[in-house]
Amino acid sequence: LLRAAIDLLPEGVTLEIFDLLGIPAYNQDLESDMPTKIKEFKSKIREESDAILIATPEYNFSVPGVLKNAIDWASRPYGDNSFDGKPVAIMSASIGMLGGARAQYHLRQMFVFLNMYPVNGPEVIVTFAQDKFDANGKLVDENTRKFLTQLLQNLANWTRRLRGEKYSV
Questions:
Q1: d(Cα 3, Cα 117) in Å, to the nearest integer?
Q2: CB 89 within 8 A of CB 51
Q3: Are the beta carbons of 61 and 104 closer than 8 angstroms?
Q4: What is the pLDDT of residues 15-44, one digit of tens each?
Q5: pTM: predicted TM-score of the whole model, two decimal places
Q6: Strands 52-56 and 87-93
Q7: d(CA 168, CA 154)
Q8: Residues 167 and 161: beta-carbon distance below 8 Å
Q9: How many alpha carbons lie under 13 Å from residue 139 in its C-beta half-sphere?
Q10: Helix (H) / strand (E) containing 2
């Protein structure tokens, strides 16, 4: 889904994927001397990103532990929330019939505390993902491509709007 997003970006928009691999388990005792990977992650969010795009599956009716762990690191210590004021969009894919919807709703709950500004639509919830991607992982479902394209355009517009810039419709 992220690879498809790269191909469908609006003109003038770039997407950098930050791999969560290597982020250690959150430990409040390390907040005063954060691991290098966490410092890099927080910097990418705070200083190098105009907006955030989260792609997630759903595990056990919620956000995967790895993603929750990364969010905890990036929003800590208290008063040093890298996500503060950032526009954000979510997309999810699952082999099940709910497509990650519950993970998305739990993320939206977190965004309230994190003071993030989510794009409300369209919701990109890819159900039965095994039927929407080919054997090489390429998104082949045209409806999903359409919704993803609109989500990315809406995120770009929302980001510009929040920054007080002109935006296209």
A1: 24
A2: yes
A3: no
A4: 999 999 999 999 999 999 999 999 999 999
A5: 0.93
A6: parallel
A7: 9
A8: yes
A9: 22
A10: helix 2-7
